[in-house]
């Protein structure tokens, strides 16, 4: 799932290529991906892209006062092309859900396909006049790298710290992968209860949130969309590395599998050497 660092890099990538270009067409290959109807996608045709920004894990393409907002969900991605095919998309069950076709002055050749892998469809596109009209954006918690962000007040909750980090209404932008990385850096169990953390544990978690995300943002910045997924995977120290060796202590990275998700952790670094129970019926927030 793309998280804040990758989405921020995608925003920079799109801003560089889209701003100033005119929307030639928005082609839909899936009715399900479009979550709104007013304004219609036809209203964007002929208008110039004036900005691209990020709200948590949402991409916001501003088009002369209108907004095309995209949430990539678990398996969505943006596939950029400097030379799109002339043939329009058709409705179907393929991986392409939408195409944004742009004209930078030499014809409607630039743009991107919005794709989604797998059978579980969570990709979402919103056409709105104000990004706050998107329910997920309106409900977002603070950005963890925003000036003045304070983690400590957000921890006064009787929930697992892993779940807290992933809850977009509490903190915006962190998902499954970076919450694993943050908790490993902070040397905390993902099942630790947030309100029960002592001062030292809170301080470690605050530092880890800042350091892990800052490093990831810097590593992702400037990379083309086609390289971001591989770059993210290569930087993970515990997430997605079950069975491998922890490069901090040498222990074997362990895993807990849930109904629709999983987490990875280092027993020595995070749980005092004790393996966590595999609570297969639990579910973390998306």
TrEMBL record:
Q: Which SUPFAM superfamilies match?
A: Glucocorticoid receptor-like (DNA-binding domain), N-terminal domain of MutM-like DNA repair proteins, S13-like H2TH domain
Catalytic activity as recorded in UniProt = Hydrolysis of DNA containing ring-opened 7-methylguanine residues, releasing 2,6-diamino-4-hydroxy-5-(N-methyl)formamidopyrimidine
- Where is the Formamidopyrimidine-DNA glycosylase catalytic domain positioned along the sequence? 2-94
- Domain FPG-type residues, every copy: 237-271
State the needed cofactors, names only.
Zn(2+)
Biological process according to GO: base-excision repair
Q: Which GO terms describe its molecular function?
A: 8-oxo-7,8-dihydroguanine DNA N-glycosylase activity; damaged DNA binding; DNA-(apurinic or apyrimidinic site) endonuclease activity; lyase activity; zinc ion binding
Keywords assigned by UniProt? DNA damage, DNA repair, DNA-binding, Glycosidase, Hydrolase, Lyase, Metal-binding, Multifunctional enzyme, Zinc, Zinc-finger
Enumerate the CDD domains for this protein.
BaFpgNei_N_1 (cd08973)
Q: Does the entry feature the keyword Nuclease, yes or no?
A: no
- Asked if the keyword DNA-binding belongs to this entry, the reply reads yes
Organism's domain of life? Answer: Bacteria
InterPro entries linked to this entry: FPG_cat, FPG_N, H2TH_FPG, Ribosomal_uS13-like_H2TH, Znf_DNA_glyclase/AP_lyase, Znf_FPG/IleRS
- Family that this chain belongs to: Belongs to the FPG family.
* Record protein name field: Fpg/Nei family DNA glycosylase
């Amino acid at each position: 799932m793309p998280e804040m660092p990758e989405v921020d890099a995608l925003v920079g990538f799109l801003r560089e290529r889209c701003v100033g270009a005119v929307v030639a067409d928005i082609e839909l290959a899936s009715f399900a991906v479009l979550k709104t109807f007013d304004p219609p996608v036809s209203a964007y045709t002929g208008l110039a892209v004036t900005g691209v920004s990020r709200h948590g894990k949402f991409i916001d393409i501003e088009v002369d006062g209108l907004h095309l907002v995209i949430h990539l969900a678990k398996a969505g991605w943006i596939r950029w092309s400097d030379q799109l095919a002339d043939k329009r998309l058709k409705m179907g069950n393929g991986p392409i859900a939408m195409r944004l076709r742009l004209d930078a002055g030499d014809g409607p050749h630039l743009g991107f396909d919005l794709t989604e892998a797998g059978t579980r469809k969570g990709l979402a596109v919103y056409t709105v006049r104000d990004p706050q009209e998107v329910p997920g954006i309106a409900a977002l918690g603070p950005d963890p790298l925003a000036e003045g962000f304070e983690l400590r007040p957000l921890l006064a909750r009787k929930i697992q710290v892993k779940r807290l980090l992933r809850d977009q209404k509490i903190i915006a932008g962190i998902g499954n992968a970076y919450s694993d990385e943050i908790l490993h850096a902070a040397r905390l169990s993902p099942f630790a209860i947030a309100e029960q953390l002592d001062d030292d544990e809170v301080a470690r978690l605050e530092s880890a949130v800042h350091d892990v995300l800052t490093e990831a943002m810097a590593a992702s910045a400037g990379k083309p969309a086609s390289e971001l997924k591989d770059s993210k995977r290569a930087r993970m120290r515990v997430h997605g590395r079950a069975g491998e060796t922890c490069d901090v202590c040498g222990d074997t990275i362990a895993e807990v599998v849930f109904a629709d998700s999983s987490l990875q952790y280092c027993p020595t670094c995070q749980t005092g050497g004790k393996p966590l129970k595999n609570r297969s019926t639990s579910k973390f927030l998306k």
